[in-house]
Amino acid sequence: PRDAPAELARATPGLRWVAAGGGADWVDDLWPLLSAAEVVVTHAGQNAIADVALAQACAVVIPEQRPFGEQHATAAALAEAGIAVSVPRWPSADRWAALVQRARHQDPRQWKRLQVEGAAARAAAAIAA
């Protein structure tokens, strides 16, 4: 939602939220924000998940509706593997504090299981072969 940062700030006093993308101001380089974030809230698209995985950020993943349900499948797999917290839709304000706490207790090193580091080089080698 467009008012997500304000909603999250009200629901989690003491935390500072930064929005990037969607209806928020455009951020040319998201990496400094991702790598410094205590918790990232993201959709479950493959590129977003790869970025969060490389940053090894604790995350709340909220899948967007897609024709084949791939984001819901990705979010469910991440939650089942204990890599990220997942909810099927944007939560009500009263749920955010608990979701952030759950995300903070995830082990961000679990993202390494997705093997995103060096993925571009591996893809290039496979294409060149």
UniProtKB/TrEMBL annotation:
Glycosyl transferase family 28 C-terminal domain sequence ranges: 27-86
GO molecular function: hexosyltransferase activity
Gene3D superfamilies: Glycogen Phosphorylase B
The protein's name: Glycosyl transferase family 28 C-terminal domain-containing protein
